[in-house]
## 1
Amino acid sequence: MKVLVLGGTRFFGKRLVTRAVESGWDVVVATRGHSFAQLPQGVHHVLVDRHDIQSMGQAFRDQTFDVVFDQVGYSPDDARLSCQLFRGNVGRYVFTSSASVYEPQMIPLKEEHFDPRTLAIRYGGQSELTYPEGKRLAEAVFFQQATFPVVAVRFPIVIGEDDYTGRFRFHVERIQQGKPIGIPGKAAKMSFISADEAGAFLHWLATSDLRGPVNAASHIPLSATEVMDIIAEEVGQPPVISTSTREGERSPYFISENWTLNLTKAVEHGYRFTNSKEWLPEVTRKCMT
């Protein structure tokens, strides 16, 4: 199997690439070269601007792939580029979308709570749109215009020791240092997934018959305070909670309305997700060392 990974040199993209190589696939990783990563032996690394049609065309116009994994598509312009470039040249397209396409609700969110097939398309680049707008409109372009099979993975917050956003490490370090973390109200629950499982799920999708939007998350949603309790147990001291809303003190995991995902679609297609309480302690320990 020949696969192309757009992005793939950091966070759960690295884990996807490692699994693909271990499966014996022919793997091409395309990046701008801005972040250095030691790619597994045998990976073909191509420098390209994923957001530029000329750059992408020069690199891939005459190539065919069984699967394309798009880790760095953020806008309808990016989606339109892929629909044009890979027409007739790809067997399956796996787009990393986001649970941010949904509005928070009390009930677990199902894929049909946002239908990209009915959204009016307007074009624009990443800098012209908010992150949720960009993902929604990118999905709309893929599902209304692509001539190849597409699956859009709606991940929630992804947690790992190498998370470049620093959101999880923020909690670990402040609990270790005895510094306050702002929880300015009753914390609602949200879904999470580990970076390891995010990479594993993408890898699984390469050979699955699943199509369309799909939620992917660990079982057992947690509130910000529940996440901190798990961290505190590993650190060995309780968190210091404040009601602060100041940037740099307020928890980046605090939300006031539930934002959890219904996993029925993926589970019915055969995937078995982990439990968030199983892997959070290990990630905490890795952040402490």
Note: The CA atoms of residues 234 and 281 lie 6 Å apart.
## 2
Amino acid sequence: MKQDMSEDILIKYILGEASTHEGQEIETWKSANHANAKKFEEVKIILETGKQLAEVSPLSEAEAWEKFKEKRATARQEPAKVVSINRSTDTNWLRIAAAAILVIGGGWIGYYLYQQNAATQVVNIQANNQVRVDTLPDGSVVHLNKNSGISYVGTFKSKREITLAGEAFFDVKHNEAAPFTVHVNDVTIKDIGTAFNVKSKQRNTEIIVESGIVQVSRSNNAVRLSRNEMVSINSDDKQLKVEKSTDDLYGYYREPVFNAVHVPLSRLVEVLNEAYSVNIRIENTALRNIPITIPIKWTDPLSNVLEAIKGTTPAMNIIEVGNNVIIR
């Protein structure tokens, strides 16, 4: 029989989460002597007090945990104080001690409860008017394009599933035991460790793989994509068609400066329309496939970029009228 019993096991038992074998061990341990039974009751009171404090706390779980860590760090730096106790008020003292332990020394209880609640917490990450880069709990990195967002449930370790709205580039950390899954519209992208871009716009979904392999599935159809392969899915499509990705413009928003090298003007215009929320039209069809090589700094105004494009082809005429731009 164990001489001492782990507080973690006692908490599991009190919460009704211990196994049958653990429960039998605890009951045997409790009945062994008065000290063990008293310790069990103390842990039970501390846990109940902790729950009551959690119910009335105005802080969120994450905020409360951060506050707890701050208080614990401060308490460890301060010298201990000795206070005389009236033995006749043993019950009140036990409850006061329970609350004090929760704030100062009961890290194992706070952490346990925090972990339990974190497993069902929904995390939302949103990019508004600027591109946002975030490292997920598993070490994977996500680049969110403007006006895009992702959400996931839990700690994102044993189960790595994300719901996407908009566009994002994922650089996934390898973990065969927990595949990385992205849900967007009615499409599912599953990966183990790779880098890929997902774009959702008006119920159309585009997936481009930069490295590694991903599986894309929709209804009863599924395809595997390797490096430099893509699939573009319209809401009315019955089949998934794998194609070659011909450029790396899909990831333009990941870097502050993008170097366009021999990019057809028509393709560059598509990206500029999206990046600057404008409407650029090429009226002179002879210019559509002219290769453009320029650096683009996304913090520059559109007029600077258009001036650089015009500099590559002097005969080009560019007319700006508000958010409309005509290339002749």
Note: The longest strand covers residues 204-211.
